[in-house]
What we know:
Blueprint: E1 8-12, H1 16-28, E2 32-36, H2 39-49, E3 53-57, H3 65-73, E4 83-87, H4 92-102, E5 106-109, H5 114-122
Parallel strand pairs: 1-2, 1-3, 3-4, 4-5
Helix pairs in contact: 2-3, 3-4
Manganese (II) ion (MN) binds next to loops.
Amino acid sequence: MKEFVEKKIMIVEDNLVNQKVMGRLVKIFGHEPILITDGFEAVEQVKLQKPDLILMDIQLVGITGIEITQLLKGDEILKEIPVIAVTASATAEDKERIVRESGCDDYLAKPFLPKQLYDKIAKFIDVKEIDLN
Ligand code: MN
């Protein structure tokens, strides 16, 4: 049987309520959340902490999640880290534009159900088997 390994998931989110909820869910999914509120700090912390996956809010103060993701995807090493954009922009055009402009690996629209976050993360890394239904 394969042993479950806890990984680091960075949550870049400036809404503290959302950040807290996502952090709790990530723990329930078996992983260690790294909570980042400031977009400028995000790039620095990615370099320092080398997370296994990033949940990236798009609407941040001063710098957008699109710009942060562009910076990460322009780096030979950091570009390997999967980035899931998380945004309230809900139209198909918004989604297509964000993915194209940022180079993010996937997209999750807010608001989302725990199961939807679980399924997105599970596309990239192992998650604990839990029943969310
Ligand atoms: Mn935001």
